[in-house]
Amino acid sequence: MGHGVVGGGVTEILLKHADQIAKKVNEEVYIKKVLDLREFPDSPIADRFTKDFNDIISDDEISVVVEVMGGLNPAYSFVKQCLEKGKSVVTSNKELVAAKGAELLAIAKAKNVNFLFEASVGGAIPIIRPLHQCLAANEIEKINGILNGTTNFILNKMINDNMSFEDALALAQEKGYAERNPAADIEGHDACRKICILAALVYGTHVYPESVHTEGITKVTLKDVEYAKAWGGAVKLIASARKNGSSVEIITAPMFVSGDCQLSNVDGVYNELLVRGDSSGTIGFYGRGAGKLPTASAVVADVMDCVLHKDVRRDIMWEDGTGANVLPYESYVNAMYVLCGADDAAAALAKADEIFGKCEKIEKDDSESGELAFITPELAYSEFTARCAEFGKAADVKATMRVAKI
Amino acid sequence: MGHGVVGGGVTEILLKHADQIAKKVNEEVYIKKVLDLREFPDSPIADRFTKDFNDIISDDEISVVVEVMGGLNPAYSFVKQCLEKGKSVVTSNKELVAAKGAELLAIAKAKNVNFLFEASVGGAIPIIRPLHQCLAANEIEKINGILNGTTNFILNKMINDNMSFEDALALAQEKGYAERNPAADIEGHDACRKICILAALVYGTHVYPESVHTEGITKVTLKDVEYAKAWGGAVKLIASARKNGSSVEIITAPMFVSGDCQLSNVDGVYNELLVRGDSSGTIGFYGRGAGKLPTASAVVADVMDCVLHKDVRRDIMWEDGTGANVLPYESYVNAMYVLCGADDAAAALAKADEIFGKCEKIEKDDSESGELAFITPELAYSEFTARCAEFGKAADVKATMRVAKI
User: Which of A184, A308, B125, B158 has the most crowded CB, counting CB atoms within 10 A?
Assistant: First the structure.
């Protein structure tokens, strides 16, 4: 269902690797129907297109349905009907999984079919299955990742080429990395959906994106990026979930990332996820988080898994959530970067020390006079904002940003 | 079977996370017997130790056997008997899998049980299952990795702290990263076994370590390491397998790795594997490649998989191999690093250009006079050695090393 970029890639891989795939799953994987409202007269399977969902839902020969339409509607309704009809569903649609995952997994369980979504997080990077299976003997302490390639590309252009946010966004659009309406990427919603899916998978309770404090990168300035570099790190859009007792701290926001952390070096449109288990230590997963063939290859692998496990459900499952297990973001503890205007930088730093506790001044060769940047000690965010208001009486606070705890 | 470092970790995790594990696999995972010739009177399961393998093989209640004894004998005989008796086996023993994988997988298939070995490559890092399942829709073009943490620790001490190979090895032994007899690590055999397992998994034919050209790091000097740094990269022990038609190029050797490649930055005892699929692009896996709990957590995850899939075999399988699909290493094409003594460096470089084709001189601030280091164009190894012999008439060749193609 859906013959856009990813759908076209799925078709391409299924046709190109038909023999290899058949050998691996012990039967032919045949594309019976493709649902799309558009016409594709030049497709090698042009005769199998339909505009009518009923052609799919009512066809008992179709045992696995791929949903790569994106968006919540009509994907949600279609997927739900397919599962209820006893068809396994594979999707790359993070919006759908983040909004309806618990419900759809419950239907899949009741019908003893699979609902798989490896491609919804990290494109081609194996994440869902390794987290679920390979790290199953671990208690997962925290997950931190760069889960949106578009924003990482933009930030890297700012970091490496001194490009403004606006210019870097325009370049990303020109290269096809960013949509014409880039809000889902640059406002952080895409990364937020992905960390919600991972948190649900790992901690067992659905986390709805609305419960998660989400900041995009639109307010990140070249000055912030320069100070992060001078500090020895980089500004990255970090999606983070960590266990805190029986609750979860979860947030998506641009953060200062230390230079000795692998996430500070992730290039271009790549994604990287770091997972810390109590036994495994930190494990990293790296690769292309989006794109036609990378995403499609993850979809096809899930299809193959469905075919191989027709009568044995994958036991991926989580409970529905109310947001009650999500701690309020004001309580999350981070060191903070503060940029301020101050005629007397030394006096302002002394004031900062007094208010926040001993701060670390960031030395930058070409600092403008009348400007001061520093890192505070670790503080709960509510405490930080209160003290920052106090500090704002003595200096002109221009920007603040969290320092990632990875 | 085996209550050494990893075996102790397996027990620890199974006891510590008993409830969580039971919940995930829908039944209790109970340690019925532990085989070890030593006594463990203080173990919480001291009453379950046995010195007699027959207590395990003849106990029909034991459905999954963990082999973490290491070494080929008696592990091979014990594992074979367990599989033939219809018990699933989980192992962390790379020597066993590299030497007997095809045979043991065939027995497991015939008996419809599982033979799993996620922990044999990369410790806690999920590699086997992601390669097999998540990247199943890809044709894997190449695999390159740092698969031995001990040698990576030693090389990094040479790189970062200017320590000699001997001192770095002594430090690794002091820290418990290297065995008292470190040959398997420093001679490259451990990394070679792991790349053999991955090549078999990905290309479908067993590759015996004896078929693979393997060089360790014992001949790497501080001077090589410094020239690699001056060139903009690092010396790393690289295990590499790549598809070439229906054959495989496979090698384990120290190589110059370019600074913009993720493998050049892998720290300490960490491992990293880069896999390139035709659709996925390059995917990276990173983490602790050894150690008690990391390795044990991978073993326990495999045990859980066996319990969950009692009647459904994982379809991991490869054919036995004769080495016929392994191309001779003399034909592998690499650029080469050459270090030589030369009274007239300019003349020697001109000679090198003449013999190898246009070479790239490595500029190093503190180069000794009478010394020259350069990188040749890409050449088949047999061609390189022939031309190097010719070049040796004009200069005193002190060291050569491959430049990794990743």
Answer: B125
Q: Quick one: average pLDDT of A65-78?
A: 96
Instruction: Kindly list the distances between the CA atom of residue B392 and the CA atoms of A189, A346, B342, in Å, as whole numbers in the listed order.
Output: 62, 63, 10
CA–CA gap between residue A66 and residue A313 (Å, rounded): 17
CB–CB of A291 and B309 under 8 A?
no
B281 and A294: CB-CB below 8 Å? yes
CATH number of the domain bearing residue A251 = 3.30.360.10
Residue B168 forms part of a structural domain: yes
The string of pLDDT tens digits covering residues B265-316 is 898 889 999 999 999 999 999 999 888 999 999 999 999 999 988 777 777 8
Can you list the alpha helix ranges (DSSP code H) found in A145-188? 149-161, 165-174, 183-186
Sign of the four-CA dihedral A105, A109, A111, A112: positive
B285, B118 Cβ separation under 8 angstroms: no
Length, in residues, of chain A:
406
Residue B149 · residue B290 · CB < 8 Å:
yes
Is A43 in the B-facing interface, judged by CB distances under 8 Å?
no
B149 and B275 assigned to the same domain: yes
Q: Which residues pair with B250 in a beta bridge?
A: B241
B179 in a domain, yes or no? yes
Q: How many domains does chain A have?
A: 3
> pTM higher than 0.80, yes or no?
yes
Q: Are residues A221 and A358 in the same domain?
A: no
Two tokens, residue B288: 């602790």
How far is it, in rounded angstroms, from Cα B33 to Cα B56? Answer: 7
Cβ neighbour number for residue A268 with a 10 Å cutoff: 13
pLDDT over 90 for what percent of chain B?
Answer: 89
* A294–B272 CB contact, under 8 Å: no
pLDDT in tens, B331-351: 999 999 999 998 899 999 999
Sheet holding A115-116, edge to edge: A64-67, A88-91, A115-116
pLDDT tens digits, one per residue of A230-240: 999 999 999 99
- Residue partners of A325: CB distance under 8 A and separation at least 6: A203, A205, A207, A246, A247, A248
> Do B149 and B257 lie in a common domain?
yes
CATH number of the domain encompassing residue B345: 3.30.70.1150
Mean pLDDT of chain A: 95
For residue B86, what are the CA distances in angstroms to A52, A76, B108? Answer: 50, 44, 8
Q: What residue numbers bound the domain in which B345 lies?
A: 331-403
**Interface residue A284 vs chain B (CB under 8 A):** yes
Burial of B44 (0-12, 13-18, 19+ CB in 10 A): exposed
The per-residue pLDDT for B290 is 86
Does the pLDDT at position A315 exceed 80? no
* Segment A275-301 mean pLDDT: 94
Give just the sign of the alpha carbon dihedral B197, B203, B206, B208: negative
Confidence of residue B368 (pLDDT cuts 50, 70, 90): confident
Q: Is A74 on the interface with B (CB under 8 A)?
A: no
Q: Same domain, yes or no, for B283 and B302?
A: no
**Mean pLDDT in residue range B200-219:** 96
Complex prediction ipTM: 0.90
Judging contacts by C-beta atoms under 8 Å, the chain A residues touching residue B309 are: 312
